[in-house]
Structure formats: structure tokens, C-alpha cells
Amino acid sequence: MGETTHPGGKERLLNGMAEAIAHRGPDGRGTFTADGVGLAHVRLSIVGLSDGRQPMSNSTGDIVITFNGEIFNYVELRDELVAKGHRFRTQTDTEVLLQLYESVGEQCLQHLNGDFAFAIWDGRRRRLLLARDRMGVRPLFYTRSGDTLYFASEIKALLEVPGVEAELDPFALDQIFTMWAPIAPRTAFKGILELDPGHVLIAQGGQVTDRAYWTMQFPDVRDIDPGRIADRQEELQALLTDSVRLRMRADVPVGAYLSGGLDSSLITALAAPMAPSGLNTFSVTFDSAEHDESSFQRLVAESLNTHHRSVRCAGSEIASCFPDAVRHAERPVLRTAPAPLYRLSGLVRGEGMKVVLTGEGADEVFAGYDIFREARVRRFCGRQPHSRIRPHLFRKLYPYLPGLKQQSPQYLAAYFGAGTDRPDDLLFSHRPRFRSTTAAKIFYSDELKATLGRYDAAEDLASRLPPDFRRWHPLHQAQYLEARFLLPGYILSSQGDRMAMAHGVEGRFPFLDHRVVEFACRLSPEAKLKGLEEKHILRRLAKGLVPDTIIHRPKQPYRAPDSSSFLDGQAQAYVGECLSEQAIAGTGLFNPRAVSRLHEKSRSRPLSGFRDNAAFVGILSTQLWHRQFVQNNRHGVASARVAAPVAG
Description:
Elements: H1 9-20, E1 28-34, E2 37-43, E3 56-57, E4 63-71, H2 74-83, H3 93-104, E5 114-122, E6 127-132, E7 141-145, E8 148-152, H4 155-158, H5 170-179, E9 193-194, E10 199-204, E11 207-212, H6 229-247, E12 255-257, H7 262-271, E13 280-286, H8 294-304, E14 307-313, H9 315-329, H10 338-350, E15 355-357, H11 362-365, H12 370-382, H13 409-415, H14 431-438, H15 446-452, H16 457-463, H17 474-491, H18 493-501, E16 506-508, H19 514-522, H20 525-528, H21 536-542, H22 548-552, H23 569-578, H24 581-587, H25 592-604, H26 610-634
Parallel strand pairs: 12-13, 12-15, 13-14, 15-16
Antiparallel strand pairs: 1-2, 3-4, 4-5, 5-6, 6-10, 7-8, 7-9, 10-11
Helix pairs in contact: 2-3, 6-21, 9-10, 9-18, 9-26, 10-18, 17-18, 24-25
């Protein structure tokens, strides 16, 4: 990190960067400057409404923090610090974090239960410390220009820095078209990096080091303790209840997202008694019967007596806000699913609220996704590759995809790679997903193919797995792949933080409390996936808390209409511009004629099949991303700024 000055001074430059992400913090703004450092903060006030202004310094002014997120156990930490003689000027978790660092240094991270991205400037050591929460709920990006390190909660702020240009990283794009998200630290922007979840970065004396302070760990397959499910269920209920209790802490009302599935329903059931004036719940509903879960949402809301509101998303409404969703996601996406969540957070903010609990994370840590059941069936079929009976099990996996039930056993076995994928393959559980997503790469341009050469995104992913990965149970391997990569890379970012904070709404995730995650990692596989029943222990826990209909309903992942959302005239206008042969040729990423045929096909009828839908949405969002960031930046829309803020 070094000193950089430009005409107009640091304050002006810091304010320019903060303005780029003002949506993350509409309640206040502040800056700090000193020799060699500049910090800016835009505030979403949730705890310590009147005395939480940031950046915040210690009593001597030589340690300064700017902090995005929440430390949920700040009350307990504060009491411990007071007992040791610390005195506090504010009622904020920010000051608790600041004084905890002053007391124990970077070991403070081991004491935190929270969702956070923060920067601490330690003037005594002339050291900058950046840290991100364990599961990657809050984002943190950084880049270097000259001898200066720049960082921010969103890349938009970094694009204000002189010399930082918006340029697509083609390898990141290939990762998106393989596994839905770039592999951190890579981002869609060449030269701009993302701090990994559970990592701390230290800049001192011209050197920058990055290391993990926490990671998911599973027992070796030989060391798994099956335990008594009743005992484990009791322990989980205590942990999860306490996780919800901590996340209900706020000086503003806390609501909840309610999808109608088991996870959000269970969180709502635990939170409702803790809301003295009744719990506000919010849902997305769809015109499309295939995607709509409103009847289940109403059932839970009525059962728990919540104050329930919903936002209905017709295809035209998804299309109208899709460009905004891409702009806030700051990366291409393969599904339209972020757009309805963008509208949902708008509803929450419009109702005067800015904190919601959500059920995200349960599928990853308690094995709820169909991909886990699918991998189990594939291994079962692989042991008798010529069986005509075993492939029938695939029909049980995806009840929301009726076309699958009509396929022959031979087709099902071939489609899911039963008997062809090696069971010792580190990516065995995810190969079918990667194959179906990768199929959309047939639309790549020759230039992009030449640039990528022999690069294999899946093998890149495999090379980043921990050394003890091979010693884990196959289910635990699959869980790690989901929780370590897709969860922070897509679910918590493109569908989570970025869509919620676009409207200044903070999502809180009780299932991602690190104590809950560590407990789930220690559970035996059968406690999570019993036969083909996913989230077995959660279903047991939910009895008596949520309606039986919710407990026993088949898993239905959150999805939204994809290409069919873009059929009306208003959407076709901007879609036509983005997907015209001239526009496609201009970016040089896709084959203009192939995309033109796909677009024409989509205009006559909704596209069928995952490949065409993923290709359509992926290409459209890439073109929108390029237009909003690369073209606009080249045309001077993003003015030059320099600073080093972590904001929002």
C-alpha cells in the first residue's frame, strides 16, 4: 500500500468511490485520511443508530476501522472486554470489533460470530488488515495500481480509480459457463480480485499477504461418528435457536424471507416468537405455475401468524429489471433468478424494513440439494452398470421436471453419467452439472476459444481442493464443493448480498452461523441424507414447528422463468440490441450467427432444455455486463477516482 495523490485531494476522491456504492449505505457517510491511507464508508444503520458513524477510531486515534456487516455476538464480546477494563463510547458492534482488535490483534477473527468485511488501519504498525467472514456472506474486492492497494465492497468503486479499467477476464467467463461463478480470487474483471471467504489480507511495508484463518473441515471417512440422531437433533435445535436469537439483534425491526420450503419455514418458525410485534415475512410469487410456491408460503404465514407480503413477478417484470440485476451482480449470470430477488428486496425496503433472515445455507450444510441425491444414485447404478432397474431411481430425483419421468432407463443412465464417471474422480458429484452447463459453450467465438486454449475450468477447480479432500466421505466432498464455491460465488452474491444491498437491505443467514456449519460437518452422512431423503435431521427438527405439508413436500429449488421472460415487446427491444450480430461481433466473445439463430428461436417460442436457456441468459447477461461496464467506462461515464475504501 502506498501514498497516491491526485488533483482535488483525497477527500474528494474518497467521496467519489463511496458515491459509486451509495446504495449499500443510504443512512450516512464518512471518510478518514492520514499519511499513506484513505478510508471511506457508506452506512446502513442497524445497530447503534445514533453513534455508529464510520470510519471509527480508537481513543488514541491510531487504529481506524471501516466495517460492513454485523458481529452478532458483540454483546457478549463487549461484556468480556468491559470485565478486562475496556471502556466504550458507543453502543455499536463496530467499536467492539475495534477494541477487540486493539486487545488481541488479528486473533480477533477467532472470536467473531458474524457476517463481515472490514478494514483496519493500524497506524502504530503502519499496517492494513482486510478480513472477510467465514462463509463469504459479505463481499470484499481489491486491486493494485502502482504501489497502492485499493479495496471496496463492490467493484464499481474500484472502477473509479485512475488506471483501473473494466476488462473482461475470459477465464472467469469460462468458469461462469462451467460452474455458474468465477473461482475466487478471480472475478469477471481482469486484474480485480476477490478476497476468499475466511481469509485475511495484510498489507505492510509494500508487501501483501493473504491467508486463511478458517475453512470447512470434515472428518476422515474412517473417523465419522454416527452418534445418536436424537442427541444430535437436540444439539442442533439449541444451536440453531441461538443462531436465530443472535441474528434477531438489531435496533430496527427484523423480518424474514419465506419461500415456502423447509429451510425458510423453519427459520421463520424459530424467529416468530422472538418478534414482540409479530414477524414480517416476504415472498416472491410467479405467474408461472411451474415456479410459483405461493400456496405453501401462505400456509406457513397463516400457521405462524406472520405479517406477510409478496411481490409477484411476471416475465415482463423479470425482463425489465434484469439489466439492473446484472449491474449489481457485476458479473454475467446463467439464470434470471437474481432478478426476482432484486424486486423482493425492493419490496422489503419499500415497507420500511432493512433486515431479513433467510434460509440460505441449509441445502449446502445439511445436504438438501438434488445433486447430492443424484450422486448417490449414480454411484449405486455404477456398481451395476448394465442394470435396467437401477436407473429408474433417477425419476425420483426431480419431481418438478416432469419430462424426466418419460425418459427410458438407458437415456437416464447415459444422461447422468451412471457407470461412465469414475467414482474416484474428485468432482464426481458435480460432473453432470458441469457437462450440462458447459454445453452452452458451443456459442463461444473462435477468438474466445483460441484465448482459452486448453484451459479446463473444472480441472482448475479440482486443483484448488484441500489435501485431505480425498479422505472425506463422498457426500462430504460434494458438500464442500457446493459450500466453498457455488454458495459464496453465486448464491450469497448474485442472488444474495448484491440483490439485497441494491436496495439497502441486509440478509442474515442463521444456517451459516459457523457453529452450525461446524456441527453439520461433524454429522454422519446418514443424518443428513438418509437413503434419498435429504436434510433428514432438519425434517425431524421441524416436526411440531412447521406444517407437516412443508416437512414432507419434495425439494423444489428456487427457480425463475428464464428465456420466456423476454418475450414481450419492451424486453425484445433491448434484447435485440444486445444480441444483434453487430453487438455480438463487437464484444468478440460469441459466434454472431449461432447467437442470432438462438435469439430467433427464442422469439418464436420459449426455449426448452437447460443448455439453450443457460446459453441465452448467459450470453444476454454477458452482453449487458459488457455494455454497462466496459463500454461505459471507455466512454468516460465512470470518472477517475483514487482511494481505498471498504464501504457499505
